Amino acid sequence: MKISELAIVFCAAAMTMSCIRQEPLNAECDIVSVSLPGDVLNRQPLIDNNKVTLIVKSDVSLMGLAPEFELTPGATIEPASGTVRNFLLPQTYTVTSQDGEWSKEYTIIAEHNNTINLNYGFEHVKEASALGGACRYDVFYEVGPTGQESMEWASANQAYALSFQASTPNTFPTYQGEDGVEGYCAVLVTRSTGSWGQRLGKPIASGNLFIGKFDMSDAVNHPLEATHFGTLFTNVPSQFSGYYKYTPGETYCEPDADGNLVAVPDKTDSFSLYAVLYESVPGQEWLDGNNVLAEDNPYIISTAIIPDRYASEEWVEFSVPFTYRPGKTIDPEKLKAGNYSLAVVMGSSQDGDRFCGAVGSTLKVDELSITCVSDTESN
Amino acid sequence: MKKILLAVLAFFAIGVNEISAGGNQGFFRSLEYEVNAGTNIGGASPIPLPAEIRKINSYSPELNLQIGATVRKWLGTDQKWGAGLGLRFETKGMKTKATVKNYGMEIIDNGKTLKGRWTGKVQTKYHTQQLVVPLTAFYKLSSRVVLNVGPYLSYAFSNDFNGYVFDGYLREGDPTGDKISFTGDSKASYDFGNELRKFQWGMQLGASVKVYRQLVVNANLEWGCNDIFNSSFKTVSFNLYPIYLNLGFGYVF
Q: For the segment A93-112, what is each residue's pLDDT rounded down to a tens digit?
């Protein structure tokens, strides 16, 4: 009796002290979504943690756009939502959190995006860091005729940092190599993701590089969906060419139900290197790891895939035509309206999307180019 | 309080006196011994709960055993006041699941750290094995009920504080950092075991009730006065205090 009374008194005391307090104000300061009044945007804005890219229709002037923002609840933005600004140059906005303690600067770029590169030399990288500076990785970008950055390649390097296995750029799955056909090249290596990756059922990471956007926020949960392949393309591609070198890793493995790698005898790893032209439609503006080469994807127009990929320590030159899917053609109206997208995708283990492959498989790629119909006509 | 202190001091004063006077025979004969065993129910809790903790979804005290012995000396002619010294081995633990918002988190693996603010669910398991030395004053409330109060010192020879985060997202570094979601089956484990303090002190307050001849039932509240973590550890931004109710029985002879 006495004991139970004591227990009750103790619990009551603990509960009084343990009252859940009032919810703190939000500390985050994100741009959640961006809209533009009128029929101005060609496709959904691309929102990163401190950058937004607005792809506007080709006949819309960049000089007087008034983007409207949805922010983290309670956050404020300066200049205010709906302010008309000149987007011939990138514009800066500052978002301040509801609790007033945090703020973040966003650069907002508006572009017609019809200036995409057609030749990729992998000569330029910038370094990004992760885990509070404990590791650094390469981010490839291409420059336009004026020497300015014109496009950034996407890769899952940032997600690989979460495996705690990498430190310097060349310990990541994708980095710049020095032995290019000309200058530098891209190097893609299939890596182990250590105990952490294994616990998440993702024991390897295939080296990967693609035109598109990598969605870091979804990388752990849905790695296949996190790769948004493709960007707006307004030409008719006819040929995909370049150079590669490939060394498969020693042991091809598949993960079992617990995420442990199990060797598959008599199987040799292979790589992927291809280009896809597809139609961007609302609800499926990009292709991802689930459907980029799917036979039943009705929006794929044409693909350029190297049919006989083999291991080689010397550079192998390739040139493959874009092959139209049965019944598919390019509609000139849609092409002009910016309804098509092009993805170039490479991976050091072609089954890396299912976390199958050989650790150590190395793909090197250089001097890729996309030849377009108008180019061949003018030649 | 003064009285308690006096009683404790008196215990030693008398002890030293009697031993030095060579009259220790009498002193030891008047000592009372108790062996006891029990279980600890409680947890390491912030006081008050910080605003970052939005909800306690589940709590399990786990089975925490305790065994120990106490030496007691009753003082004066009325033998109402006494003092005692104990030694006990005990385990303290808990398992909780909480929903948090903007909560300091650090995931360490392979010598590297992913640090940031977590919003979502956190599972925590705390388990420690300690040697505890309580130094307490006793007061006989009646022939059956004895109260005790006093400080204790403890040394932890095994410490675990670990768990995982799930169903939420991390903002890397601070709330403006990259957002990394963990939903579905994805979880990230953390381990702060090496950051736990080895030496702690606290206060205990309790009562014993004689239920049958030499058998007593004990209830003691042990209130830790140190944060369970080393002061250099900043990831958990608030202090956690071990607060346990010890229930058990003892045999007095």
A: 999 999 999 999 999 999 88
Contact B151, B134 (CB under 8 A): yes
Assess contact for B64 and B111: CB atoms under 8 A.
Answer: no
Identify the band that residue A218 occupies on the pLDDT scale cut at 50, 70 and 90: confident
Contacts of B163 in chain A (CB under 8 A): none
Q: Establish if B213 belongs to a structural domain.
A: yes
User: Into how many domains does chain B fold?
Assistant: 1
| Cβ pair B221:A10 closer than 8 A | yes
Of the residues B55, B56, B57, B110, the best mutation for testing chain A's interface (the one with the most A CB atoms within 10 Å of its CB) is: B110
Contact residues on chain A for B101, CB-CB shorter than 8 A: 23-24
Q: Distance of CA A208 to CAs A145, A156, A214, A218, Å?
A: 26, 7, 11, 17
pLDDT in tens, A292-345: 999 999 999 999 999 999 999 999 999 999 999 999 999 999 998 889 999 999
Judging contacts by C-beta atoms under 8 Å, the chain A residues touching residue B191 are none
Chain B residues whose CB is inside 8 A of the A218 CB are 181
**Which pLDDT tens digit goes with each residue over B184-198?**
878 888 888 889 999
Give phi and psi for A38, each to the nearest 5: 85, 180
What would the pLDDT profile of B10-47 be if each residue is shown by its tens digit?
A: 444 444 444 444 444 555 667 889 999 999 988 888 87
Q: Is the minimum CB–CB distance between A27 and chain B shorter than 8 Å? A: yes
Q: Which residue of B has its CA nearest to A6?
A: B219
Residue B4 backbone zone (phi > 0: left; psi -120 to 50: alpha; other: beta):
alpha
Residue B22 in domain? no
* Beta pairing, strands B199-212 & B145-172: antiparallel
CB contact under 8 A, B49 and A196: no
Say how far apart CA B132 and CA B152 lie, in whole Å. 7
| B24 domain-assigned | no
Domain presence at residue B246: yes
Other beta carbons within 10 angstroms of residue A39's beta carbon come to 8
* All domains of chain A in start order, with CATH: 31-111 (2.60.40.2340), 119-378 (2.60.120.890)
Furthest-apart CA atoms within chain B: distance in Å? 74
Flag if B175 and A134 touch (Cβ within 8 Å).
no
Instruction: Give the domain range for residue B136.
Output: 32-252
- Closest CA in chain B for residue A22: B51
Q: What is the greatest pairwise CA distance in chain A?
A: 99
- Residue numbers of A between 113 and 132 with CB closer than 8 Å to B: 130-132
Question: Which candidate from B113, B169, B179 shows the least CB-CB separation from A134?
Answer: B113
The verdict on ipTM greater than 0.90 is: no
Which chain A residue's Cα is nearest to B109?
A: A164
Q: Which residue of A has its CA nearest to B43?
A: A14
